[in-house]
Amino acid sequence: LEVIASVEPRIAEATRQELADQRGSLKLIASENYASPAVLMTMGTWFSDKYAEGTVGHRFYAGCQNVDTVESLAAEHARELFGAPYAYVQPHSGIDANLVAFWSILANRVESPYLEKLQAKNVNELTEADWESLRHELGNQRLLGMSLDAGGHLTHGFRPNISGKMFHQQQYGTDPETGLLDYDAVAAKAREFKPLVLVAGYSAYPRRVNFAKMREIADEVGAVLMVDMAHFAGLVAGKVFTGEEDPVPFAHLTTTTTHKSLRGPRGGMVLAQEEFAADVDRGCPMVLGGPLSHVMAAKAVAFAEARTTEFQDYAQRIADNAKSLAEGFLSRGANLVTGGTDNHLVLLDVSSFGLTGRQAESALLDAGVVTNRNSVPADPNGAWYTSGIRLGTPALTTRGFGHDEFDTVADLIVDVLSNTEAGTTKAGGPSKASYVVADGVAERVTARSAEM
Ligand code: PLP
């Protein structure tokens, strides 16, 4: 930090403060974690300076021999860790990984003279008719994914996202009674809509998915099954999700981030069956620019960590702790979407406290509990205010929290929410944003969490 401070002291100070904040609060954001010192240090090296567009052994730049070592190792570790025939470790983030997967599916499955010429590297021969074919064929494909309010991600066909614009899209939700995925309803929708791409995976669904069933649905309608395991990759790597709950053997393509439950550097990755490998390999330059070599190196380090028995134990504790957190809420009378959890996250419906998700998120933050507001299925408050709070256990499990600590976390959260009231607007009506926490509650909760 001293080196940074000698150039831009405010950045050094913000960095110091970030460490203090992350240590001094309860980090319950389901997509966050604490990467190991080895992972963090690997990101701060000279690989950051190196350009390496292309693939291993086929770069558009000279002098990439060490990047080749790094990328090969990261891919090899990923293949072994997840039992995947092919791994592409270049995506800079989860969204990039999904874009690479979408384009490789289009390139692999859509018949168009443009794509044939592109594949044959005859881009210069493209005629106006080829471009017309491209616009028509690529712009006419269908994608079916899980809706945002049921727990899907923006990139699974949400209209405002590019995935909802580059594809004709439809969304599947969850059963309105149970909040659970209804495979028969997904199958019925797939039969009717006949998508090219069926996307499974989620950001805020607190249950496990049967990927064998999702593959059956995809096969029945001739779709490609793409699973986005960004949230639960750590549980797959740690062998908590096995058999039909492990997406890798069932999906044609599995995408992920590397920084959530997997506890690596910020980044993305695509795992693929052989038939898609060559198309995914063209992620750069089709979708991506130069890979972040320092981050690929850190991915290799994180995958090496994730293949240990210590990591398997960690992954099991993530799931056990989520159950403890859920039980802590239920025993204190709170409502959970689907009535519980069997993965790494809990979705708390805060409407019974008379609050919106936004009010709950802010009140909790005042007490040092860092969460994010999240829609619940058919949310009456929409995606901005929401009615839920999403809570994940990966980060605090890294800090060593177990059953008792997570029971206390549930107690602290219920303490804050039951002592918070919705505020009023300037016109005197009920506000969805402002809130009032009773005196002394934030201090009490902060003091209790400091002891943990
Ligand atoms: N896919 C899922 C399921 C996610 O939850 C997220 C991020 O929250 C992403 C993709 C996007 O990841 P990134 O923020 O690295 O682009």
TrEMBL record:
The organism's place on the tree of life at top rank: Bacteria
Keyword tags: Amino-acid biosynthesis, Cytoplasm, One-carbon metabolism, Pyridoxal phosphate, Transferase
Chain positions of site Plays an important role in substrate specificity: 259
Main location: cytoplasm
Cellular localisation: Cytoplasm
E.C. code: 2.1.2.1
Residue ranges of every copy of the Serine hydroxymethyltransferase-like domain listed in the record: 6-107, 141-413
Binding site for (6S)-5,6,7,8-tetrahydrofolate: 148, 152-154, 274
Keyword Cell membrane included in the entry's annotation: no
Gene Ontology molecular function, alphabetical: glycine hydroxymethyltransferase activity
Catalytic function, reaction form: (6R)-5,10-methylene-5,6,7,8-tetrahydrofolate + glycine + H2O = (6S)-5,6,7,8-tetrahydrofolate + L-serine
Residues bearing PTM N6-(pyridoxal phosphate)lysine: 260
Alphabetical list of InterPro entries matching this protein: PyrdxlP-dep_Trfase, PyrdxlP-dep_Trfase_major, PyrdxlP-dep_Trfase_small, Ser_HO-MeTrfase, Ser_HO-MeTrfase-like, Ser_HO-MeTrfase_PLP_BS, SHMT-like_dom
Cofactor(s) for this UniProt protein: pyridoxal 5'-phosphate
Pathway: Amino-acid biosynthesis; glycine biosynthesis; glycine from L-serine: step 1/1; One-carbon metabolism; tetrahydrofolate interconversion
CDD domains, per database record: SHMT
Database matches in Gene3D superfamilies: Aspartate Aminotransferase, domain 1, Type I PLP-dependent aspartate aminotransferase-like (Major domain)
Pfam family, any one: SHMT
Role according to the record: Catalyzes the reversible interconversion of serine and glycine with tetrahydrofolate (THF) serving as the one-carbon carrier. This reaction serves as the major source of one-carbon groups required for the biosynthesis of purines, thymidylate, methionine, and other important biomolecules. Also exhibits THF-independent aldolase activity toward beta-hydroxyamino acids, producing glycine and aldehydes, via a retro-aldol mechanism.
Family classification: Belongs to the SHMT family.
Quaternary organization: Homodimer.
Name of the molecule in the record: Serine hydroxymethyltransferase
Record organism: Nocardioides zeicaulis
Source organism phylogeny: Bacteria, Bacillati, Actinomycetota, Actinomycetes, Propionibacteriales
Record gene name: glyA
